[in-house]
Design brief:
With 160 residues, the chain is α/β, with parallel strands linked by helices. It is built from three helices and nine strands; from the N terminus they run βββαββββααββ. The strands form three sheets. It has a three-stranded antiparallel β-sheet, with no helix packed on it. It has a three-stranded mixed β-sheet with strand order 4-7-9, covered by helices on one side. Strands 5-6-8 form a three-stranded mixed β-sheet. The chain is elongated and about 65 Å long.
Length: 160
């Protein structure tokens, strides 16, 4: 059985609009855009700790969001095919990046904290167990070299 490949193409654009460019470390804007064909642009920059624009997404936030989003999508799929009716899902995910004295850095950990609300009468234990499967299947989590922890909670919606 062969592998099925999926290709993803994005465009990252930056310009030295003021004409100064990278004359010095402090001289250039970190603001740039991320796009993919037919989709809205994402206003991006670096983390403010690295002279970035606080009002724009940075790559570190996008990495954490990517892990959270991938887990969400696998989880919703698994619930849909296993008879668990989810009515709300929220996740306050966080990541820790460690910077070394030589200026290099890498993520040490990401933690997903999904809080899932299921319809009354659904199997809470099954809903919780499906997080394990979603984590195992999430291709973003499978692709990173740091631990991704999932600390999930299941709540039941109030009866109407």
């Amino acid at each position: 059985m062969g592998l099925k490949a999926h290709a993803y193409v994005t465009q990252v654009r930056w310009t030295a609009a003021d004409g100064e460019g990278t004359r010095s470390y402090r001289s250039y804007s970190r603001d740039h855009t991320i796009a993919a064909s037919g989709k809205p642009e994402i206003a991006a920059s670096s983390d403010p700790a690295f002279r970035g624009n606080r009002s724009r997404y940075n790559p570190e936030e996008l990495l954490v969001a990517s892990l959270s989003s991938c887990h969400l999508l696998w989880y919703l799929y698994l619930c849909s095919v296993n008879g668990v009716r989810v009515v709300e899902y929220r996740d306050d995910a966080s990541g820790t990046m460690e910077e070394r004295e030589d200026g290099t850095a890498e993520f040490a950990r990401v933690e997903l904290r999904p809080i899932v609300t299921i319809a009354p009468g659904n199997d809470r234990a099954r809903a919780l167990a499906l997080h394990h499967d979603a984590h195992r299947l999430c291709f973003i989590a499978r692709s990173v070299k740091f631990p991704v922890a999932v600390d999930a909670r299941i709540e039941e919606a109030a009866l109407p």
